[in-house]
Amino acid sequence: METAELVALPLRERLLAMEALWESLCRDPASLQTVPTWHASVLNDRLADLEAGRDNPTPWETAKVRIRAQAEHLTKNAS
């Protein structure tokens, strides 16, 4: 199935497809063992900041506003 076909599906069917894909990945835990180098680096940096007391968490309400704005921007640019 092509990406364009997935995007054309109704939301409910896209969510069901996503759940099926996630379930298939979870059945093979070995496939999830590999973390990309860039991701491991980000996680290590964040852990180091946390351990050094340099963590500066974003309040949930602030994060929700930022995430919604980014999602709206992406949605507008996708059309």
Keywords:
79 residues, mainly alpha, 4 helices
Task: Provide an overview of this structure.
This protein is mainly α and 79 residues long. The protein has a domain at 1-32. It has four helices and no strands. The protein has helices at residues 3-8, 11-26, 37-51, 60-78. The relative contact order is 0.05.
Q: Order of helices and strands, N to C?
A: HHHH
Instruction: Tell me the distance between the termini.
Output: 21 Å
Rounded average pLDDT: 87
Per the principal axes of the C-alpha atoms, what is the gross shape? flat
Q: What portion of the residues fall into strands of 2 or more residues?
A: under 5%
Biggest sheet descriptor: none
Low-confidence stretches: none
Strand tally, please? 0
Give the helix/strand class: mainly alpha
Per DSSP, the total helix count is 4
Radius of gyration: 18 Å
Helix content: over 70%
In short:
The protein has helices at 3-8, 11-26, 37-51, 60-78. It is mainly alpha-helical and 79 residues long. The protein is flat and about 45 Å long.
Write the layout of secondary structure elements.
Elements: H1 3-8, H2 11-26, H3 37-51, H4 60-78
